Amino acid sequence: MGVYRLMGDLGSMIGPVALSAIADATDLHTPFWAMDILLVFSALMVAIFAKEIIKTRFNKGAPPPSQL
To answer: Is-contact 22 34, C-beta < 8 A?
Structure first.
């Protein structure tokens, strides 16, 4: 979770500078497409590599919260 937050913070710092450089080098539509591609890539990485903690937390013998 910490790495995910770190990437978000880095994106907040680097993103505007990088996207404005892309906008200066090309037209104003290209930074939006670049951001769309990065957003889909980020969502895919979270979907593939992030573990679901709800499934693993309650499989260790503790009852789910609905049974407490």
So the answer is: yes
